[in-house]
Design brief:
The chain is α+β, with helices and mostly antiparallel strands. The protein has 15 helices and 16 strands. Helix 1 runs antiparallel to helix 5. Bound molecules: adenosine-5'-triphosphate and magnesium ion.
Length: 425
């Protein structure tokens, strides 16, 4: 039997009802904050990711689905392509490619779509997963560098999670400074690691050479006491970065968005500068991060674009759904009326009634004239219908229909014209 490939999965009803409700709510909230949708291709030139996410990150060094797309003509060259492992790089590429900086204003863009990483599949970790993300990007003159953007994004996320119904989420905040700060921190980390790195895991030994910041990401238990004693990034921030971070925190305090500082949160992508953040939820087990994001002030230039500071986030939609489900009590999509044709020749009448109901905004499903009444009742109950509408010869003749409330068992006769209003209750 053929099965979905390891790390991929089918999303099925009734789960997809919840996915759609979440997406509809997200679109609604984002529109209120004046974000507009962008859709970028699912695959891109491999270089886009190596130059933005960073060669030494886990994503680029081992998690990408990359292939050589062979030349189709003598004149063509083979090209290395990659299924997008994240969407910020694609958005910034599109921002540059289409000159979205030309109006000189902020661009507020959001996306919803699949991403791909070759990771070890487990709960909350898949090889095809879905992200809901947004970016604010623009020239500094439009206010893109201002700490108010950071606070605005974080406040929006708090509102969005509240409105989709997620309870007890936590916000963790950090600042990873600017490129110069990180050079100094990098040097300090290397020095601090030199005498102890021999006792650490193989990954850390490699990271200590190639990208010491990534050591802070290490999850190996035995390495934790060593990592706890390493220098802290906050001691290496310059005046401007320190001030920027203080301003972000001050605004969050002012509007009442609560957070905690986590100095080890450096995030898995090299393009981040200054503010980085994660929202976590207790219902997710080991993969507790529902979303992550941060500022990326040098990313546009790294991709040959103009100076265009920005800040963004990506929600792991699979994890958001898991977290909501862990809270329980998600009502399934409800069928309001089950239309039951009763007896030969009744299908066409039932179809007509169902058509009228659906056009009037009632969620309706229908049975078949071949079914006995008992079977129709069973099907209506399986569908979770509120009412069953019986369409038999007498009903059609009288243009009045027997309607039974499946919860209370109460039955009444309702004239055809009054059906939609009756069933919408
Ligand atoms: P993690 O620490 O969980 O590996 P990450 O730092 O790799 O996360 P990001 O690249 O920041 O994650 O992506 C943002 C969000 O996307 C994460 O917080 C998570 O909710 C989700 N996410 C990342 N990788 C996966 C995956 N393989 N499967 C499902 N969701 C994922
Ligand atoms: Mg990861």
């Amino acid at each position: 039997m053929l099965k979905a490939v390891r790390g991929t999965r089918d999303l099925l009803p009734p789960d997809t009802d919840l996915w759609n409700r979440v997406e509809a709510k997200v679109r609604d909230v984002l529109a209120r904050y004046n974000y507009h949708e962008i859709r970028t291709p699912v695959f891109e030139d491999t270089q886009l990711f190596s130059r933005s996410v960073g060669e030494e990150t886990d994503i680029v060094s081992k998690e990408m689905f990359t292939w050589e797309d062979r030349a189709r003509a003598e004149s063509e060259k083979a090209q290395s392509l990659t299924l997008r492992p994240e969407n910020t790089a694609g958005v910034v590429r599109a921002y540059i490619e289409h000159g979205l900086y030309k109006p000189g204003t902020l661009q507020k863009l959001y996306y919803i779509g699949p991403q791909f990483r070759r990771e070890r599949p487990q709960k909350g970790r898949y090889r095809q997963f879905y992200q809901i993300g947004a970016e604010i990007i623009g020239p500094p003159s439009a206010g893109s560098e201002s700490p108010a953007r950071d606070a605005e994004v974080l406040e929006m996320l708090a509102t969005l999670l509240d409105e989709v119904g997620l309870r007890a989420w936590k916000l963790e905040l950090n600042s990873v400074g600017c490129a110069e700060d990180r050079l100094r921190y990098d040097k300090a980390l290397r020095e601090a690691l030199r005498p102890v790195v021999g006792q650490m895991c193989a990954d850390c030994q490699r990271r200590a050479e190639t990208n010491p910041l990534r050591v802070l990401d290490c999850k190996v238990l035995e390495d934790q006491p060593i990592i706890e004693k390493l220098p802290r990034i906050s001691q290496y921030l310059d005046e401007a970065c320190r001030g920027h971070f203080a301003a972000v925190r001050m605004m969050l305090d002012e509007i009442g968005v609560t957070y905690s500082i986590n100095e080890r949160m450096v995030r898995g992508l090299d393009y981040y500068t200054r503010t980085t953040f994660e929202f976590t939820h207790g219902g997710l087990g080991a993969q507790s991060a529902v979303l992550g994001g941060g500022r990326y002030d040098g990313l546009s230039e790294a991709l040959d674009g103009p100076k265009a500071p920005g800040i963004g986030f990506a929600i792991g939609e699979d994890r958001l759904i898991l977290a909501l489900q862990s809270q329980g009590g998600q009502p399934a999509g409800r069928v309001q009326a089950f239309v039951a044709p009763l007896g030969a020749g009744m299908n066409r009448h039932a179809l007509k009634i169902a058509r009228e109901l659906r056009r009037a905004g009632v969620t309706a499903d229908m049975g078949d004239e071949e079914f006995r009444l008992k079977k129709s009742f069973e099907l209506a109950e399986k569908a979770g219908a509120s009412y069953i509408v019986i369409v038999g010869e007498n009903e059609v003749a009288a243009d009045k229909f027997a309607v039974k409330d499946l919860a209370s068992g109460e039955q009444v006769s309702v004239p055809r014209a009054e059906l939609p209003e009756f069933l919408r209750k």
